[in-house]
Write a structure and sequence with these properties.
The structure is a homodimer. By secondary structure, the first copy, chain A, is α+β, with helices and mostly antiparallel strands. Chain A has helices at about 5-15, 25-35, 40-50, 95-105, 125; strands at about 20-25, 55-60, 65-70, 80, 90, 110-120. In chain A, a hairpin with a 5-residue loop joins strand 2 and strand 3. Chain A starts with 5 loop residues before the first helix and ends with a helix. Strand 6 of chain A pairs antiparallel with strand 6 (about 110-120) of chain B, so a sheet runs across the interface. The complex binds zinc ion (4 copies). The site of one zinc ion has 7 residues of chain B, from helix 5. Chain B binds a DNA duplex (30 and 30 nucleotides) through helix 1 and helix 3.
Chain lengths: ~130, ~130
Amino acid sequence: MRRNTRQRDAVASALAQIPGFVSAQTLHGQLKAQGDTLGLATVYRTLASLVDDDRADILTSPDGENLYRACTTSRHHHHLICRTCGMTVEIEADAVEQWAQSLASEHGFTGAHHVVDVFGDCAACSAQPRA
Amino acid sequence: MRRNTRQRDAVASALAQIPGFVSAQTLHGQLKAQGDTLGLATVYRTLASLVDDDRADILTSPDGENLYRACTTSRHHHHLICRTCGMTVEIEADAVEQWAQSLASEHGFTGAHHVVDVFGDCAACSAQPRA
DNA sequence: TGTCTTATTGAGAATCATTGTCAATATGCC
DNA sequence: GGCATATTGACAATGATTCTCAATAAGACA
Ligand SMILES: [Zn+2]
Ligand SMILES: [Zn+2]
Ligand SMILES: [Zn+2]
Ligand SMILES: [Zn+2]
């Protein structure tokens, strides 16, 4: 049974207030900065459980860090991510799901998962001069 | 200037003989097993330079490891990867390319790149009992 | 409300891929 | 051959993530 704890709420609500993806480390830092005291390991565990419950998204940044984001929907979806400001658009694309599914089965693969993310510069960031 | 060394050749040819993606660690292990002596750091550096020269592909596995593969084509493509044995199928899917492209432009994104990889267990590995 | 079971926490150690250090070595150009 | 320097390798260092395990607290139940 999953118990409700102060820490779990703190992590979930902190995550919900952040517009883009954050790392566990950063989230932990922000929580501590605002007075919440909780262990880093707890943040990792809580984020993992949120992902497990489809209440958060996870993705690996180009430099190998795991980033998390509160899900607005629990349905499977993909992302369009601004590599400059981190702004994220959630994407649902049945065509891609079906493509991935049939691709895997055509080649005899089972238990297929897929990673489909699009990175670019959003309209706002495209208009800015280089950072 | 880039110099040709025994180690670079060893890494490049070892990589070329492997059908799928391998980690730097694994490749280093195989090289040592076949008698080549070279440092792990050298394998990392050489693989990075191969990627830099577009002579190798790199991707990050679901568990955060960097995997490398000798490029057979310089054309843009995706992969269907066995998470057990690393066997890889190269995929070209214009539909996905167009989808990603139009998705990005619909949302005002510029300079879009995408990550599209499918992981699963290949037919051979699916037939095996659990490792 | 009090008790009990056990999920959860937290501080720090441990893991593990990857990168940095730097003296020793080897390559390409003359 | 000789030189400048790119490269190597053994090892330390980094850094994110996970593990350990005793202490704590959530929730069920009486
Ligand atoms: Zn942006
Ligand atoms: Zn999908
Ligand atoms: Zn396989
Ligand atoms: Zn593509």
